[in-house]
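Notes continue from the previous slide.

Worked example: a multi-chain complex. Inputs as given:
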Amino acid sequence: MPPSDPHSAISRPPRRTRTLETEVLVIGGGVTGTGIMRDLALRGISSILVDKRDLNAGASGGNHGLLHSGGRYAANDTETARECMAEGDILKRIAPECIDACGGLFVAVEGDDPEFAERFAGYCSAAGIPSETLTPAEARELEPALSEKIFAAYTVPDATIDPFRITLEQVNQARDAAGSRFLPHSEVIGFALRDGTILGASCRDNRTGEMFVIRARQYVNAAGAWAMEIARLAGCDSVRLLYAKGTLVISNSRMAKRVINRLRLPGDGDILVPGGTVSMLGTTSDKVTELENLRPTVDEVDRNLAEGIAMVPALASARFIRAFSGVRPLLMAADSGIDGRKASRGFALFDHKDEGLSNFATVTGGKLTTFRLMAEKTSDLVASRLGNTAPCRTAEERLPIGDALRWTTPGFAARYWFSRKDPADAILCECEMVPRSAVDSIVAEAPGAEDEMTLRAIAVRSRVGKGSCQGSFCGIRVSSYLYDRGIYTSPAGLGHMRDFFAERYKGILPVLWGKELPQAELAETLHCGLMGLDVAVPAAAADSETGDETDSETGDGAGQ
Amino acid sequence: MEFSQNRSYSTRLAVIGSGLAGFSASIFALDRGIIPYQIGNTGPLAYTTGYFDLLGYLDGAALADPWAGIARLRAEAPEHPLARIADTAIRAAFSRFCGAVTEMGLSYTVSGGKNLNALLPAGLSKPTLSVPATMISGVEALAAREPALIVDFLGLPGFSAREFAANFKAMWPTLKFARLGFPEMETGAEVYPEVMARALEVPAHREALAERIRGAVREAGEVAFVGLPAILGVHAPDRVHKDMERLVSLPIFEIPTMPPAVPGLRLRELFEQALPERGLVLAPHRKVERLELRGDSAILHFTDNFGEVTVKAEAVILATGRFLSGGLAAERDGIRETLLDLPVEQPETRADWYREDYFDPRGHAINRAGLLVDDAFRVLGRDGRPVSPRLFAAGAVLARQDWVRQRCGAGIALATAFRAVEEAAALLQERVG
Amino acid sequence: MSGASAAAAMPVIDFKAKADELLPDGASYDSCLACGLCSSGCPASGLEGMDPRRFIRMAVLGLNEELSNTPWIWTCTQCKRCAHVCPMNIDVSVLVGLARGLWPQEKKPSGIVRSCEAQMRSDSTSAMGVMPEDFVEIVEETLEEIRASDPRFADLQAPVDKEGAHFFINQNSREPAVEPEEMGPLWKVLDYVGADWTYSSSGWAAENFCMFTGDDNAWRAMVEKRVDAINRLGCKVWINTECGHSFYTLWKGVERFGLTANFEPASLVTYYAKWIREGKLPVNSDWNTRGLKFTLQDPCQLIRKSIGDPAADDLRFVVRTLVGEDNFIDMQPNRNANYCCGGGGGFLQAGMNEQRRAYGKRKYDQIIATDASYVMTPCHNCHSQMEDLGHHYGGSYHVVHFWTLICLSLGLLADTERKYLGPELQDI
C-alpha cells in the first residue's frame, strides 16, 4: 500500500539497503512497459523493468488477445481505427510468430439495429479498413458455428496476438541489446524526490519483503491501471483514470476460425476471439474503484454467455475451462462521464513538467493493438531527455524467436513435441503437451530466469496449467520435476503448488457447471485427498512469500 | 437380427453404482443371502489412494480418534450421514468390508479404534482407518522415523522420491532417496505405474528390480525400510509384496501415486472378478439410463452392446455418486439428480456453490449438496416423505457431508451402504413374510 | 517401419468435430479429464510417440494434420479398452477407424489392404484368396481323408450349401488355405452333438480385413455378402467359429449398415458351453493326468466389443471342464478388462513387427505370470500373435484351439490334428 505522504517515503535510504543503478527505470511489466524497455534498448539505452507481480499481470494479460482491424472503432473514432490498421501491419511484420492472421467477421443478429449494420461498410471504407459484405449464408459457410439468425455480415482483417509471447520477446531483446533487466515481484512503494528530480525509487521484493532502491536518470510509469497510483507516489495528480473491469470466458476448444464481432455498439459477450486452440468470449465492462483482488464472477460469465449464444449458439453447450478479468485503464477527461465503454480508448503520455518533475513520465490508456506506438512516443520523450538522438527502430527491427520464448503459443508445445519424436522428453502437462524440455529452457533462460523460476512463473511463460485440467494434474507433475531438478528443496515447493492451484481456481470457479465440474471435483479430490494441500502448512507464507503480493485473477488472458 | 441373450432380468435387489458404496452394498447383501444385480459405470474408483478413511478431519483439524470425531458430529452436525449411524453398524460395515476384500485376495489392515497416519506422495501424511497390507510398513516407518530409502523411477512423472524426502525432512530426517530405471523400461519414456505393476507379476521382473533396489540400498547406507510408489502388482499385490521383501531382505511399503495409479485399479479388478464368483450378477461398465418406480417394483433400463436390457427389482440402492460419477449433474441453473430428478438439497444459486478460497477449510457448499434420506436411508421426495418404500441411497450422493475435506469417503460409502442394505433386507423380508 | 508409411500428407479432417458427431454427448472428447487411465492400460501407448490420451488431447488442440498422418492408428487395434477404463466412457477407437479410412489406399499397410482386396475378389470373402470352388474341394478332400483314416468317422459329414440347415457355420480361411486338417476337430464336435449344420460356398469366410482398412464400404460389402448367403440358405443360427473379430464385424456391420439379417448370430463358444451343460458333449479333464496348467485369452472382439461377460463366463466354464478346475489359471486382467494381445485390428498383417511385438510384450508377461503351459483362445489372430510372442520372447507355452482339446477329451483327436499340442499330449 502506498504511504500516505509519498514525498516522505524515503528521504534517506536506510543503511545497508541494496541499491541498483540504471539509466531508466520502467515500472510495469505489460506490453507497454516491456515495449518501452525494448524501444530504449534498441536506441542503446539500458533499463530496469520492475513489476510488482510478473509479466502481463495486468490488462496486457487480461484481454482477448485481439489485434483489432479497427472495425470496432470505425463508426465513431476514425483516427483510432486507422491507427489500429497501421500498428497491426507493423506487428505482423516484426513478430509474425505471435500473430494469427485469422481474419474476422462482424455479424448482426436478429434484434440488432439494421441501420447500424447497414452503415458499417461505409465506416470501414472511410477508415481505410478493407471489408467485404457477405450474405448470411456465405458467412455461415465460412463459420458454421454462426447463428442462423444473423442478417448482416462483413469481413474485416482482424487478427489475434499472443501477448505473453511478444512480451517475453521484448524483454529478451532488451536484455540482449542493452543488458536491460527485468525484476519480477518488485513493487515501487515510493520515490525519493529533490528539486523536481526523482533520485531513487524505493522498492520491495514481494516474495521476501526485502527493501531495495533503484536509482535511475529517468523514470517511466507504464503501470497501466496502476499508473494513477504510481504517479501519486511521485506527487503527480494529473493522471486520472477510470477503471473498467472486463471479464472473459475461455472454451475448451476453438469454436470458430475467425474473430466474430457483434455488429452493434459494444456490449457484453460481443466478441468471440480464437486463441490458438481455444476461444475467448467477452467482454463485460463494469466500472470499479478497486484494482486489487478482482476476480471474474458467475454473473459476469452468465452475461457474456447470454449475449454470445445469440451469435454462436454452440456456446450454450460448450465446455468452458476458465474465466479471467482485466482492468482497462481509461483516461478520464475533465468532463467525461463514468461509462467505461464511452471513455476514451486513446492513450496519453504525461511528461509531468507542469508538476515540476523533469525525469518522470507516465503513459497509460490505449489498447493492446497500439502498444508499440505508445512505447515509441514514450521512448522518444525519455531519449530526448537523456540526450539520445537515435531514432526509434521498433517498427522495423524483427523481434527475436528464442527457445525459451515460444511456449506460450497455444498448440506450439504439442506440435513441437510430436515432431521431435523424443520419447525420453517426458510430457509434464498432458492437456497442452508441454514437455520437460520446455520447462528446462524456461528455467534456464526465459526472462526472469536470472531470479527464480517457480511453478507459477513457469506457467506464465508456457501453456502449463492452461488446458482442460487447468493445472490440476500438471501442477503436481511440474512440482515434482522442480524438486527433481533441485529448484524446490523444501516444503516451500508445496506452498507454491498450493498457491498455484488456489490461483487457477479463481478463474475456474465461475465456469463450474456441466463438463467442467467433474474435472473440478476430481481436482479437489487429488489436491486434498491425495496431496493433502488443504491441511498442509501454507509453507510459502512461512518460508518465503511473506510479502503482500496481491493475488487477483487479472492478467491471465489471451488464451490462458 | 435377434440375439439369444436374455434382455430382461429380475432381481430382489438392484444396486446402481460401482464405487465403494455400490460394491460394498453388494458384499453386504451377499452376506445376507441376497443376490443383487449390480450395474455401474466405470466410475472414479480407480482414482482412490487405496486408503479406507472413516473420518480423518473435522474443521480442518486431524483426528487421531475417528470415533470421537463421529461423536462430535452427532452433537454438532446430527444430519451428517455418519452421525446417523450407530458405531456398532459402522464398525460392522468396516470390519466386514475389509475382511471381505482381504478374503478376496487383497489384504487390508484390520480397522481399529484409532486412525493410522498414512503416507501421501508429496511427503505429507493423512489419518485413515485401514490401509492395504502393502502400505502398512509405511505407517510404521513414519511413526518410528525409521531410516527408509524412497525409490522413484525414471520416466514416472508426478512421483519424486526427492520431493517426498524434502517435504518430510523436518520430522523424518533419516529419509533417503534414489532413482532407478525399471527393468526393460528405462529409455526415459513415460512409464505408467500400472505397466510396472503388471510386469512385477512376473517373477523374473521382481528379481531384476530387487537386484537394483539392493544396489540402491547398499549405496544409501543405513536403511531399515524401502518405500516404492504403488507398483507391487495389480492382481496379486500381497504375493508380489512378500516376494519383493524376501528378495530385498527389508520391509517394503508402497506410497500411493497420482492417477493413473494402481491402488484403485486393484480394487476395481478385484471386485469385478471376485464378486461374480460369489454370486453377484454384475453388469460392469454400464450406466443405468432410466429408472421407473412402480407400485410393487422398480424397472431399470440400460444398454449393452446389443441394445436395451431391463432389470426388474423389488428394491433399489442408488449408489450413483456425485458429479464425476454422474449421479448428480450441475447445470448453470442448478444441480439435479440424473436418474429420477430426485430433489437435491443445494445452495440457492450457482454463485453460492463455491467459496472464494479454494482451500477454505470450511469446504465448498456444493460438496454438501445431495440427496436427503430418512433414518432408513430411503430417498426423500419434495414433500419430505420417502419417494418409494423400495428406493434407498448410499454413498457420496448423500447430502450434508464433505467426504473429500473430512476424509470420510470410505466411511460414508461403507456405513451408509451397510444401513441401506439392512433396511432393504428388512423390506424384502417383509415381502416374503 | 515396413507396413504403413506416412511420408506424403494425408487428407486432414477435424477430429474434434467428428468426435462430437460420432460419440454420445457425455462421452465427447470435451469430457476428457486428462487423467491418463486410457493410456495407462493401453499396450499401444508409447508406440509412434502416441497414446490414447494424447490422441484425444491433440484432437482437442486441433492438431488434425498430425493425427491424420500418424501411423499410430495402425498400432491401435481398436480393442476399446480405453473406453472401458474411462470414467467418461470416451472411445478413441471410433476416431482411429475414421483416420484409417482417410489414408490413401497405397499408403495403408499393404498386408491389410491386400487381405481386403483378396476378400473382394470372390464370393468366398476369403482374405487368403480361397475361391468358392476351391473351398468346396478342400472340404471334400479333407473329409475324405478323415473318413478313410478312422472308421469311427466313416459317415462324417461336412455339408456345403445345405438349405434349411439349422446352423450356418463360418470358417477362418487359415484352415482351408494352410492347415485343412484343423477343420476335422470342428466337424467331429458338430457331428458328436448331432448338429444340423452347413457351410456355404459363398460368404463362408470368417475374417474381415476390410473392416480394419477403415473403408466402411468394403466392410459393408463383405458383411452383405455373408448375410445374403445366410439368409439364402435359411439357417436359423449363424455360428461364428473360433475367430474373434468375425463375430463383431458381422453383428456390428448389420447394425451399422442397417442390413436385414433373418438369423440369430452366435458364437461357437456359447454352443460349446451349452452342449456341455446339456450333456451332449461329455467332456472332462480325466486326460490331464499330469495336471498341465491352462490359461485363457479373451478375444477383445468377442468379449469386450460384443457379447461381454456371458461369453467370458462360457469360455471359463468350458476350459475348467476341459482341463480341471485346479488346472485353470485365469490371465490377469481378464474378461471385459482383458488386454488385447496385439494380433487384432490387422496389426498382425500390417508388417509392423517391431511395434506389434512391443505391444504384445504386456500380453506375453501376463501369460508368463500365469505359469501355464497352454493358452487357449477361440481367435485366430490371438492365436498367431501369442505364438509369435512366445517364439520371440522365449516362452515355452503352446497356444491351442478349443476344438482340439474337446476332441482330445472325447478321444476323437487324430494324430494329424495335434499340431498345436506339446509333446506330452501327442499320445493321449
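Summary box: The first helix of chain A runs from residue 31 to 42. The longest strand of chain A covers residues 320-331.
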